[in-house]
Amino acid sequence: MFAVEEINRNPNLLPNMTLGFHIYNAYHNDDKILESYLMWLSGQAQTIPNYNCERQAKSVVVIGGANSALTVSMGTLLELYKFPQISYGPFDPLLSDPVQFPSVYQMATSDTSLSLGMVRLMVHFEWTWVGLVTSDDAIGEKFLRDMKEEMVRNYICVAIVQKISISQTMDIDSQQEFLMKIIKSRANVIAIYGDIDSLLSVRFHEKPYFPRKIVWITTSDSDITNKPGAVYFDNFHGALIFSTKTSQMPGFQHFLKTINPLNYPDDIFLEQFWVTTFGCTSNHRKGDGSVCSQNASFDTLSLRYLDKIISFQSYTIYNTVYAVAWALHEMFLVRSEIEPKRHGDNQIIHPWKLHSFLKNIRFNNSAGNQVVLEKKKKSMTNYDILNYVTFPNNTDILVKVGEFIPQAPPGQDFTIQEKAIVWHQWWTKAIPERCSKICGPGFHKKVQKGKPICCFDCVPCPVGQISNHTGKEQCMKCSEDQYPDRDRIYCLPKLVIFLDYEEPMGKTLASIAVCFSLLTVLVLWVFVKHKDTPIVKANNRDLSYTLLISLSLCFLCSLLFIGPPTPTNCLLRQTTFGVMFTVAISSILAKTITVVLAFRATRPGSRSRRWVGSRGPISLVVFCTFIQVMLCAIWLLLSPPFPDADTHSDPEHIILECNEGSLIAFYSVLGYMAFLALGSFTVAFLARNLPDTFNEAKFITFSMLVFCSVWISFLPTYQSTKGKMMVAVEVFSILSSSAGLLGCIFIPKCYVILVQPQKNTKKTLKNNTNF
């Protein structure tokens, strides 16, 4: 009404012409729609196709279709007559198909920013478990597709999807099923998208049972503030509505405040609206109710009530009427230029001829905004975010609490005033809505099998990893020089450790090594002092000296394993240990062979006599040691040991150690010593029963048994320990095996020399029957 009257007053638009309109009812039933349009085409008489019984001028354009389903139902029939139809409902990509609907135009634009704005709202309030309710049509499907894509990009899960068709009518059972699906989804945030007609078919009876209250996110197209009598909308208290920003139509509010049914006596819709709004009629002929005061107008209503009328849909219809007017204006201008003399026929309008003008229409409306009526135009719509608030006295209000402007720079495109929002009474603030509770520090998400990614269990971080923030999907590893605390929240610096002289274990092992070395030197001094006694001279005195010196050095070489690893002691510790022990074991082997050869040499004509001298055993020691020296030299040349830091064996410490370089070389050195030890043990064992008062074979057998037992136990223990304990195991093995050789071979002899010197004489030897 406002647009038509404004156009008729404009001398520059359709001059000398009066624009009018007819209003027809639109049903949500295909049969009724077809019947209504056939009656209109036939002149409201019998529905006779292709006949017009009405004398007055027929309309040339149909403005209608609050939703795409109605537009399709009307367009199927109107397309037969090439009647232009302009839809003011939400944009539907199906209607923009020029093949199926060449006569249908849409004033609304293809908005690509609504889903982005809704998801930005969800991200702001940390709502990651959201339900979607849409109309069961093409625009609902497009909205679902856009929303799901945007929600996935922002790690928001769809809790439930409910579709409602225009023709759907819900009884109590189907409604309860609809509500129970929402309840079972455990979603406290529901986004609604669709037109008024499709979504209001879901009738919320007086007080539907909701165990928890829901925050609804919707648009002005599905206006929940329009209350049909059977719908109880207290459940929508606190809803957030995305309302398309519109420009004010100049003069429209004044028009609403001054309009009165007395000025439009033939408008039955305005009269009925007046009765509904004010509870009275403009005259007695319209009903039995009281007569309204002549001063009754919309001006007495609240601004909130006017805001319902001045909606985006009203703004769209206003632009649609102007688009038709400008198309007619352009058509008459073209006619006047082509056929200036045919004034009589110039007023005849054929609807199908308007198409070429509607397709190219472009004008500025009274608000200064450009209007373009194209088939596939797209735009980024700006939105106001409104908060729907209801009061106990059955009044309501919309409060602007934010806005979404997609074209604005990042950070300025979305604004929300949380303090201005009135939430549902069960919500004291914007509670984060999730399928699962957020994981705290020290935990990470583990998606529940068969459920969306938003439904997860909180699992402690694996060993060596931390999570110092809430909601982490994966834990992160600490750097090599750090380790997690007990709660696996922070990374703490690792302490550097090694077998140090300052710690009790290092002090103990070093003290034992020095003491045993001094004890060995003392034994050597005793042997040197009593070098001419029979017990010292037995089994080659030089081999005894060599063995004692090598044992003393074996004790001391364990000191190379204590203290911080350096390039020098890493090169020396294993090689020195290998060479010294080889000297000791080869000396024992030589002493054992000497015992055997000594008894063979007593036989007449035996050739073993020449090997009993000092040169033979010493040569054996030199030869065996030379082989070990060569193995060590090859090791040092090809892959020498080097200082290294072990950051993995101990989670809380960095272990400084010597990397052996080549494990093959290391175990070759040990294997060679094991071979010599096994040979010494075998020979000594075979010679253990040879008759001799000072027979060393028995002592050597026992000493080698101790030696082999120590090093056989060493291998698995060494492999199963890490860090400085590995070094301590090797030091202990060196000390215990060396002490076993010293004690088993030389302590009995020292006992005789020092405690029972009377037995250390030739006379005692001669009197021995076993001699």
Automatic annotation (TrEMBL):
CDD domains recorded: 7tmC_V2R_pheromone, PBP1_pheromone_receptor
Main location: membrane
Protein keywords: Cell membrane, G-protein coupled receptor, Glycoprotein, Membrane, Receptor, Signal, Transducer, Transmembrane, Transmembrane helix
The keyword Mitochondrion appears for this protein: no
Presence of the UniProt keyword Cytoplasm in the record: no
PROSITE patterns in UniProt: G_PROTEIN_RECEP_F3_3, G_PROTEIN_RECEP_F3_4
Organism: Monodelphis domestica
Name of this chain's protein: Vomeronasal 2 receptor 589
Listed GO CC annotations: plasma membrane
Domain G-protein coupled receptors family 3 profile: 505-769
Topology with respect to the bilayer: Multi-pass membrane protein
Annotated localization: Cell membrane
Database matches in PANTHER family: CALCIUM-SENSING RECEPTOR-RELATED, VOMERONASAL 2, RECEPTOR 118-RELATED
Transmembrane segment boundaries: 509-528, 543-563, 575-599, 620-638, 664-687, 699-719, 731-754
Gene from which this protein is expressed: VN2R589
Pfam families in the cross-refs: 7tm_3 (PF00003), ANF_receptor (PF01094), NCD3G (PF07562)
An MF annotation (GO) of this entry: G protein-coupled receptor activity
Family the UniProt entry places it in: Belongs to the G-protein coupled receptor 3 family.
